[in-house]
Specification:
This protein has 165 residues and is mostly helical. It contains 7 helices and 3 strands; from the N terminus they run αααβαααβαβ. The chain has one domain.
């Protein structure tokens, strides 16, 4: 899974979890009015500002629910991947490809389902997916599957992985 795919997962889950959608976190960075509000300040990087805002909001909620220390979740990843995600979110071609999914809840859920591995049941609260493996792509696809089911069934689920000791 490329950094672009991870970034897309973050954008989709981040926007679906916002106040105007599932209300898992109180941010509204991907709302219609947010773009208009942010554009005078971030003239060339509105999407990056939205991405960073929703990622921070989602990370705080995940950290509060899951806890911190030896855990990895979609919004708290190894530093190398975090840096690559920043670059992806600032790429105009990436933004043009992803933005259409943010205009409609069902489009966002459908796209998230395309990126996810199938067959996951959400449960309220933290969902331990196991230990971080060698293939973080597989781990994040499993996490995406939990998010899809959670948004569809209107249950707050926070999938995460533990780092091996």
């Amino acid at each position: 899974m490329s950094a672009e795919m991870v970034t897309e997962l973050r954008v989709l889950v981040g926007s679906l979890g916002e106040k105007g959608q599932a209300n898992w976190w109180t941010s509204e960075f991907f709302s219609v009015t947010a773009g208009a509000f942010l554009s005078p300040v971030f003239t060339r990087s509105v999407f990056l500002a939205q991405y960073n805002g929703v990622t921070t909001a989602a990370a705080r909620v995940h950290d509060d629910v899951i806890g911190v220390g030896r855990t990895i979740h979609l919004f708290r990843l190894p530093i190398e991947l975090e840096q690559s995600c920043q670059e992806a979110a600032n790429n105009p071609a990436f933004v043009a490809r992803v933005r259409p999914y943010l205009t409609d809840r069902q489009k966002a859920i459908s796209r998230l389902a395309e990126l996810a591995s199938a067959g996951h049941e959400p449960s309220p609260g933290p969902v331990l997916l196991g230990l971080v493996g060698d293939d973080i792509a597989t781990d994040l696809a499993r996490a995406a599957g939990v998010y899809v089911a959670a948004f569809q069934q209107q249950v707050q689920s926070f999938p995460y992985l533990r780092e091996a000791v």
